[in-house]
From TrEMBL:
Domain (HTH marR-type): residue spans on this chain: 14-146
Name under which the protein is recorded: MarR family transcriptional regulator
Keywords linked to the UniProt accession: DNA-binding, Transcription, Transcription regulation
Cross-referenced Gene3D superfamilies: Winged helix-like DNA-binding domain superfamily/Winged helix DNA-binding domain (1.10.10.10)
SUPFAM superfamilies named in the record: Winged helix' DNA-binding domain
InterPro entries in alphabetical order: HTH_MarR-typ, WH-like_DNA-bd_sf, WH_DNA-bd_sf
Length: 155
């Protein structure tokens, strides 16, 4: 039995872990894409709504960091959201080089719908998990993230 466990751990260390995590991430985002389609939002666009409503990002640079994408793709994403009247970009009052992003009333109104979709997708992916197992999964994922933070050099 111990030999079998070591083999499974070796598989995870050898790339299986990244493959599994990436597969789950891709499946979650694909499910979100399907569910967000009636709102005419993509999974990338909903991240802007979430970040703005939760106060996690205010400037274009903060949105780039939050979403983990470069300024060029973020600018195009914001162009699309601005064309849909979901966000508005304004220049900073102190530093005109700074571009602030805020939700319009339409964008703010989408937040509860987006949150309902996220909850529905998360419930689907946690189907068959007991509350204790779901909590344990969250703890394990948080530990993985903490290990990542510890392994990465400071920015």
């Amino acid at each position: 039995m111990a030999q079998h466990a070591g083999t499974e751990l070796d598989n995870l260390i050898g790339g299986g872990l990244g493959h599994l995590v990436n597969g789950v991430r891709n499946a979650i985002f694909a499910a979100l894409e399907r569910e967000l389609a009636p709102l005419e939002l993509t999974s990338a666009q909903f991240i802007v709504i979430i970040a703005a409503m939760r106060g996690r990002a205010r400037t274009v640079n903060e949105f780039c960091e939050f979403a983990g994408i470069d300024a060029g793709p973020m600018s195009r994403l914001l162009d699309r959201l601005e064309a849909k009247d979901i966000v508005r970009r304004t220049r900073g009052s102190v530093d005109r080089r700074q571009v602030n992003v805020e939700l319009t009333s339409k964008g703010s109104a989408l937040y509860p719908q987006v949150m309902d979709i996220i909850a529905r997708v998360n419930r689907q992916f946690l189907g068959g998990f007991s509350p204790a197992e779901a909590t344990q999964l969250q703890v394990f994922l948080q530990r993985l993230l903490a290990n990542c933070d510890a392994a990465l050099p400071p920015r």
